Every structure is written in C-alpha cells, then in structure tokens.
Amino acid sequence: xxxxxMRTDRPDHTGAPGHVVVIGGGIAGLAxxxxxxxxxxxxxxxxxxxxxxxxxxxxxLAGAPVDLGAESVLARRPEAVDLARSVxxxxxxxxxxxxxAHLWTRGALRPMPRGHVMxxxxxxxxxxxxxxxxxxxxxxxxxxxxxxxxxxxxxxxVGEYVAARLGREVVDRLVEPLLGGVYAGNAxxxxxxxxxxxxxxxxxxxxxxxxxxxxxxxxAAAQPAAAGPVFAGIDGGIGRLPAAVxxxxxxxxxxxxxxxxxxxxxxxxxxxxxxxxxxxxxADGVILATPAGPAAQLLxxxxxxxxxxxxxxxxxxxxxxxxxFRRSDLPPAITEGGASGFLVPPVxxxxxxxxxxxSNKWAWAGADPELFLLRTSVxxxxxxxxxxxxDGELVAVSLADLGDAVGLAARPVASTVTRWxxxxxxxxxxxxxxxARIRAAVAALPGLAVCGALYDGVGIPACIxxxxxxxxxxxxxxxxxxxxx
Length: 485
Known about the structure:
single chain, 485 residues, alpha+beta, seven-stranded mixed β-sheet, 22 strands
C-alpha cells in the first residue's frame, strides 16, 4: 500500500464505532483485531515482520506439518478454544493423544508424579514412588508441618518460598522444569503472585503449604471442568490459528499490513496518527500488541512513565530443535509406551531443557506410519550460552542428550532450528505492580491501550484475554464526554 492510499484513512467521529490501528500481528494483536471487528469497529493491523502469528508458527519438515513455536493451549480456559471455534477451527481442536510425561533426572527417566500444583506436591505417595527426590528430599517435605508460618507479604519468588517450606530439591527437580517450560525462566526469580496465583493464595491462607496444595486439588476435583482435557492442540498444528484469525479478520473488512514497521504514534487534534515507513494511518484508537522494547520506543514521548517501566521488562531467549526420523530407526523408549516426552531440571546440567515426542503426543503428527517427529528446547533466562551455537551444533547436542536419555542413536532425516530471541517475558517479583503502573499511565490517554504476553500471562488464552481487555478499553473511549481529540 502506498503513502497516498494510507492517508485517506481518517478517524470517524460521527457516532459510528470508529477505526482502530492494532500494532503487532502476534496472537494478541490478531485477537484484538478480531474482537474489535465483532464490535463493528474498522481495523488496520500493522505487523513489522514478514508474517503473522508471533510465537505461533506453522511449518513443515520432511513433508509433514510441524509447530515451530507454541504447540498447545490451556483448554480449561475458554479464550483460545472460543477463538478457534469462532474462526472455523472448532472441529480441528483435539486433546493430546497421550499426556504421559517424564522427568529426566538423577540419571534416569522417571514418571512425572501426580498430585502437585506446578511441581509443589500435595500427595507424597506418587512423588515417593517416582524416585524424583532423594530420601532426604522427601523427609524435608514431611518436616514442613513442624515449621512456623512464613510471612509471604505482597509477593514472593516461587522458588524462594517453596525452598524455605519444602526444601530446594522440590524446587530444583520439580518446580524448575515445570515453570521453565512455561516461562523459560528461573523459579528462584519468578513471582508466585503473577505466575501461580492459586499457589500464592494457598500460601497466604494455610499454615502448611502442603495442606494448601491439597485444598487446591480438592477444589479442582469438584469442578465439572476437571473432567475435560487440560490442554488442546489443533489438527495440523496450533500454528494454524493465526492464519485462520487473520483470514476471518480480512473477511470482516480488516486491512492487514505485514513488513511494515511503525516509526511513531502521535496524538492529534482528531485522534491518533500512526507513522510507518510508507505513510500514515489516522484512527480513533491505537492498541500496542508488541513486546516491551518496541512498545517502549513508541510510547517514549506519549507516555514516558509507561516507556520507562517497559524498558525494565526482561526477556528469555530459547531455541526449538525439530527433527524427523524414520520410525524404524528409533528405540522402544520413544516409540513404545506412549510417552509424550520429558522435562529436564537445569540442576542436572544437561543442554536440553525438554523434549516432546510430537508423533506420540498429537494424533495428527503421528499420522505417517514411517515418519516420527520430535523436538527439543534449549535456553532459559540467565542460562542462554548454548544459544550461541550454530544450528548444526544445537542439533548435535540435542542428539547427544537424547542418546543418554532414551538411547537414541539414529540421525534425523531432516531437522530445523527455530530461534526465539527475546521470546518470553519474565515475571519477577513485583511484575503485577509494574503492569498496573504501565496500564495506569497508558489509560491517561483515552483511545490507547496495550496487550500481549507481558501483561496477563504468557499462555495463548491469557494473551487473548489481554487483547480483549485492550479492545474494550479503546472502544470505551469512543465518544467519551470530555475526550480531547
């Protein structure tokens, strides 16, 4: 689109719902656009990169579809499932074919023990049987009932609090790999209030953390939703979702621009002006659905207080190594027993942090009787040195670790490495207060809002919920008495 075409787009102040520019084409930006269009708002979505979807990325390897980013959604939250259904992917939603995960720790693959909340145990029976913890580690958990209550305050790091109550082994071998799988972060820095709010509430209201976890489990078991699958994927990969949302937005009249970096966002007498390399777009509202760095740059003059807070947000980088093998070349530890994969506690000193046996986990990925797909992940916040390796080296170190873990000796018939530099925002202690300050500063300018993974959670449903909140905030400002356009 040329500059002259873009400048014909003027804000609408005739009482109609108006026009909003959404900056950022990840799932949050797409969900915001979809929500606005459903409310009758005209939308222009602008993405700096060449493709839409952010960390939802559909690809192909050895002729088979693969997810090169996120692979599932939390199905017990409605936002992602509802969005998928609304864009025609309802029939494609499917639970994992298997959810039998393991931990590779203390020199062996061990079953992931049941009866925990993000690694914090309630029932010690499955934990003791798994062999994940030593006898000393189990005894330390039992000793918690003798401890005096621990003051938790307004926030606390998950690892710090759990280690004080139950011992470091619980954190190092259970909490770390599970939280790391979500945030690629360090459990000793991650905010309990932000990342595991139900655990935070249990810690505040129970003398014993173990009893608090058991109470959470009793409540969860009593909920009707507990009978359904926890997670869901999409036939062909969760990476199909952004394309489906984008197509639905186009059908509803949205204009979507890719490869178009935004240089500036300006407040005008009539509303907002978004300046790109090819021209300008005028609108009644703007939603920033970008990571913290780009958002800070665009808000530097508009809302300096928010920009300063955004510059304090840290991100973790990681890489996914996706490989295709001939099934006949794989050991029984992978192809038999229906394991979905394993997590690796950082304390065990391995390069990979997890491996997913995709062809076991997802029916669609296991459709080819001769091909088997699996992937590993490398890197987390504060431990990203391995990401300096070349792609081929990351494949090699992944194969070495898989060899030690499950006896894999075969070479892949195809492989690809997907790097997510600065891919996951970190949620340290105080993160929710930072988010509140950002939103309060932005809200001082009606018609402007922010959304994305750094605000309300890094999962796909949380990003979609964040987008809905931003869309509602912007449309609520249209026609507000006293609004200074």
